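Item description
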Amino acid sequence: MKKKWLLAVGLVLVLAIVGLAGCAVPAEINLVTQEEGIWVTGEGEVMAAPDIVTLRLGIEAQGATVAEAQSQATEAMDEVMAALTDNGVAEKDIQTQYFSIRQITRWVNEEQVVVGYRVTNMVTTKIRDIDKAGAIIDAVAEAGGDLARIDSIGFSVDDPSAYYEQARQEAMADANAKAEQLADLAGVTLGEPTYISEGISYPIYPRDYNYEMVGGAPVTLISPGEVEISLSVQVAYAILK
């Protein structure tokens, strides 16, 4: 009796589901997510005279023991730091970038043997008086002696906001011109922007520096030139029917 009752209930449920399915209105499921309109990317570029020099510099020392190498590096780095601050570089503009203590090895009779240790201490420093960059490089080289290392030099603009405003105007004008051309080629009428996205790059351009002998002493010549400040905008325009 119990089995018959369960069978009857199951049959009723099946009939009810079938009935509902027959009465339901089919729903449209749109799986297409293609973006509509005209999408373009506009570019804006402005050249600017840099007012910040960024140096990556430091000390590299070697010794038979860690203590010996670290002692040499510490003494030389103290001299380098003093040279920076004595030439007007603020402490807030000096930041440790890299520090390491590594073994120096060589192969002896097919066996790798530790022959010493190398200590490297590198910092990045911002020079806000760009005309003093060459003199500061020379002071660092003299203070650190044979242990001094200067890896790279870069130029940037401290406050690029005004240049980005100009680049933004150029980027939007470029985007609008491209969209108008595409609409004309497609034979449609261009509508208003429906989406705008901005991308900004913050480049610091590394450059080489040269040495020139003046009165028997090396003088570093710095040529800052110009830096490019650029941004892009992605804009979607509606197509008028």
In short: The CA atoms of residues 181 and 187 lie 10 Å apart. The beta strands are 38-48, 52-63, 94-108, 111-127, 148-156, 189-200, 205-206, 210-214, 217-221, 227-240.
